[in-house]
């Protein structure tokens, strides 16, 4: 089991890379778009990106996620046949979804982009869907086989490539349309290159549709999960655009994107935890299942609680570096959105227990309940309170979902209240120290930020070792995992 735990840590560290790069992409794009073009352009980009998230979750039928449950430890022949069956099915669905988008491009443009004059963005969105879906399904396949190096490599290349083409398009043309066109062309090239790699890696086989019904039974309920995830995480941008304007959407999106950097760890954990817990569940190793989940939750809290407090404390200088002065009026939203991301991280980790146990319908029902709370609160609060109302809705709905899944799966894990209290105390002391030195650090924000971050890490690490929830053995274990 020690070797199994080391592989889990290694896979987690590897899968963190694409999450980190992806979040950095979002953060890098904030100054690129807002400073070269304007905050309204960033609002359009945000709505485009979240629209792609929605249509991709529908067109994929969540069959990629199903491979993480149904293709674990499968034979090579079965892997080939069922993989290509999934590619064929999702390609057909993507063509159908894209066709409907083309037919309804004006109404979609009014809702998503603020007017039918932006209907060309819907056409580009349909094109990106068609080509990006192959990348999405292929990376999920490599994840199911625990080939995390390939999984992380492809996702990292995608994120870095997107950053580069967007930066070049923004600087060269200073046009949001040029950014979207460059984004589409990049995904065309990426899908062709990845297709060549997949064929060279394990070849082409006749699609085997014999077990596709098993994939659909597991995956289709997760479509609701994907759609409800979209409602909770991104639909508020559309409501802000509808009730207010894209400038407000852009300001809110900047703070949200910055706060969502806190989700890097939980998303990376979820990437590895789902197939890992599924394997333990299939082998009926419930003791190791509980131990693994409990350890993951404890270390997540040790990392994420101080990160949440630290992000709140340095929000003002951080946003001054990342964006234009028009966004400064939205800094206080971090007091709501940073805790919301912490709640989401815990929720995302615990939701993996439903998937690993084969309860995809339970996951869909829970996400639906969270989405109902979120969208209801948004309709009540956004018209009057705009971005603040959306932030309250996000925090409230995620805390609700977390409370439900904790009660539901409480027998699957334990959390030491003693350790939790020590983490909270050390985090509070760290936050106070960083807040206290801010008036002393008179350098520009770009220079002062590293000083503030370094201070936070040193103070928290010192108290962590003094209080005993951080140990030398923890550091050595991680170093060994990195070395391996």
Structure commentary:
- With 484 residues, the chain is mainly alpha-helical.
- The protein is built from 19 helices and no strands.
- The longest helix is centred in the C-terminal third of the chain and has 49 residues, at 360-408.
- The model has no long low-confidence stretch (mean pLDDT 83).
Offer a quick outline of the entry.
The chain is mainly α. It has helices at residues 2-36, 39-59, 63-70, 76-103, 105-113, 119-144, 148-173, 176-202, 212-233, 235-243, 246-259, 264-282, 286-313, 315-322, 334-356, 360-408, 417-437, 445-467, 472-483. The chain is 84% helix and 0% strand.
Question: Topology of this protein?
Answer:
Blueprint: H1 2-36, H2 39-59, H3 63-70, H4 76-103, H5 105-113, H6 119-144, H7 148-173, H8 176-202, H9 212-233, H10 235-243, H11 246-259, H12 264-282, H13 286-313, H14 315-322, H15 334-356, H16 360-408, H17 417-437, H18 445-467, H19 472-483
Helix pairs in contact: 1-2, 1-7, 1-11, 1-12, 1-19, 2-4, 2-6, 2-9, 2-10, 2-11, 3-6, 3-9, 4-6, 5-6, 6-7, 6-8, 7-8, 9-16, 10-11, 10-16, 12-13, 12-15, 13-15, 13-17, 14-18, 15-16, 17-18
> Secondary-structure element order, as H and E?
HHHHHHHHHHHHHHHHHHH
Mean pLDDT: 83
- Say how many strands there are: 0
Task: Describe the main β-sheet briefly.
Answer: none
Rg value: 22 Å
**Poorly predicted runs of 5 or more residues:** none
**Residue share in β-strands:** under 5%
What oligomerization state is this entry in? single chain
Instruction: Enumerate how many helices there are, as a single number.
Output: 19
Can you tell me the overall shape? globular
Task: Measure the end-to-end span.
Answer: 16 Å
Q: Share of helix among residues? A: over 70%
Q: Quickly give the structural class.
A: mainly alpha
């Amino acid at each position: 089991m020690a070797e199994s735990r080391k592989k889990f840590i290694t896979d987690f560290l590897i899968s963190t890379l694409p999450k980190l790069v992806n979040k950095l992409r979002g953060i890098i794009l904030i100054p690129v778009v807002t400073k070269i073009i304007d905050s309204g352009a960033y609002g359009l980009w945000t709505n485009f990106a979240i629209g792609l998230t929605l249509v991709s979750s529908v067109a994929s039928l969540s069959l990629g996620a199903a491979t993480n449950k149904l293709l674990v430890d499968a034979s090579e022949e079965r892997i080939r046949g069922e993989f290509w069956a999934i590619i064929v099915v999702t390609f057909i669905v993507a063509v159908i979804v894209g066709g409907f988008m083309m037919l309804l491009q004006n109404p979609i443009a009014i809702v998503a982009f603020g007017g039918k004059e932006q209907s060309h963005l819907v056409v580009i969105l349909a094109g990106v869907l068609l080509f990006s879906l192959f990348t999405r399904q292929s990376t999920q396949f490599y994840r199911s086989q625990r080939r995390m190096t390939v999984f992380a490599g492809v996702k990292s290349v995608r994120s870095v490539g997107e950053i580069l083409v967007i930066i070049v398009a923004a600087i060269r043309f200073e046009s949001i349309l040029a950014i979207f066109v460059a984004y589409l062309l990049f995904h065309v090239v990426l899908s062709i290159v990845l297709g060549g790699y997949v064929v060279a890696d394990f070849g082409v086989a006749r699609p085997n549709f014999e077990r596709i019904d098993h994939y659909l039974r597991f995956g289709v309920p997760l479509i609701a999960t994907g759609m409800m995830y979209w409602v909770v995480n991104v639909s508020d941008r559309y409501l802000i655009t509808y009730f207010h304007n894209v400038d407000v959407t852009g300001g809110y999106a900047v703070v949200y994107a910055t706060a969502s950097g806190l989700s890097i760890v939980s998303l990376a954990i979820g990437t590895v935890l789902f197939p890992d817990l599924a394997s333990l569940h299939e082998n009926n190793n419930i003791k190791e299942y509980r131990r693994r989940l409990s350890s993951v939750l404890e270390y997540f809290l040790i990392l994420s609680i101080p990160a949440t407090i630290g992000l709140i404390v340095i929000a003002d200088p951080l946003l001054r570096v990342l964006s234009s002065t028009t966004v400064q009026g939205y800094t206080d939203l971090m007091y709501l959105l940073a805790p919301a991301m912490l709640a989401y991280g815990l929720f995302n980790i615990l939701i993996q227990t439903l998937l690993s146990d084969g309860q995809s319908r339970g996951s869909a029902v829970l996400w639906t309940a969270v989405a109902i709370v979120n969208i209801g609160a948004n309709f009540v609060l956004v018209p009057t309170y705009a971005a603040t109302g959306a932030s309250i809705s996000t925090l409230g709905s995620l805390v609700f979902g977390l409370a439900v899944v904790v009660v539901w799966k409480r027998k699957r894990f334990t959390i030491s209240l003693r350790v939790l209290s020590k983490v909270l105390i050390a985090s509070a002391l760290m936050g106070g120290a960083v807040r206290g030195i801010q008036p002393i650090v008179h350098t520009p924000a770009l220079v002062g930020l590293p000083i503030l971050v370094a201070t936070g890490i040193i103070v928290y690490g010192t108290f962590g070792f003094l209080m005993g929830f951080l140990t030398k053995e923890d550091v050595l274990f991680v170093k060994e995992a990195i070395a391996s």
